[in-house]
Structures are given as C-alpha cells and as structure tokens.
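#struct-help
A.M.: can someone run this one for me? Single chain, 140 residues.
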Amino acid sequence: MTAIHITDIEAAINYWRGRAPSPDGVLLAPEVRALAEVYALMIHAREHEVAVEGFPTYAMAAWLVWFDTMPDTPCIAICSTSQGDEKCKGCGRSFDEVQFWTAMEPADKRAVWRRITIEGDSWRFNRYAERAAERRGQSF
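D.P.: on it. Structure tokens below:
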C-alpha cells in the first residue's frame, strides 16, 4: 500500500499556513482545510499513515504542491550502487530505488526519504551533510 506519513501531512499544512495565512485566525485556506481534514481523521483513528488510494483529490493537490518544494532526490553524487553495493553509501537508497527513482510516485519517494532520514547512516547524513546542504543552497 502506498501511503503518506502523518509528518508529511503536518509539513504540508504548515507550508500552506505560511503561504496562505488565516485572515482572522479562524478561517483556513482551502488547502489547509483539505489537509487538516485528513490529518484530523488520522489523529482520530490513531493512524501514522494514510493510503494514497482514496486520498481526497483537493488534499492530494495541496500535498503535491508542498511535495514539489522538497528536494527531488537524496543523491549527493557519490553513488556506491554503481560499484555493486545493494545500498548506496552516499544517500542510503537501495539499488532498485536509485535505478527507478524517476519512475517512482511522490508518496513512494517520501517513504524512501523518511526511511533514509530515520536510518541516518548514509554519508548524506554524516560525512557529506555539508555538501548536500550546499547543493540545496543552505549552510550549516
């Protein structure tokens, strides 16, 4: 099942709250409201993920706008899968994830991002974290 994690829903809500703030502290922008409805149902059901199948269309459109603001790939241009490793030492993705990245759906990409961030053992998150940040225009 392809799913979106609750932390991505939260991040998308915060993105839209910054982009379209409430004019009076009560009313929500349509994008925030759509995502907040999904979020509320997840909280009520005590779910950490929500299936992409059946995800409300307007909420998905809002989530995809947020998704497009994220870095497309965790690659730091040091790929050990090309040397035969099953898991890239540079970014932490599996050989198949590296090979099929461009064909993956957004929710699947976010699931990979979540996993490699939690693992935090690839060079992206230690030895070359500064290099990865430079590619995104950030600094430490």
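A.M.: thanks! The chain has a mean pLDDT of 90.
D.P.: also worth noting: The beta strands are 3-5, 49-51.
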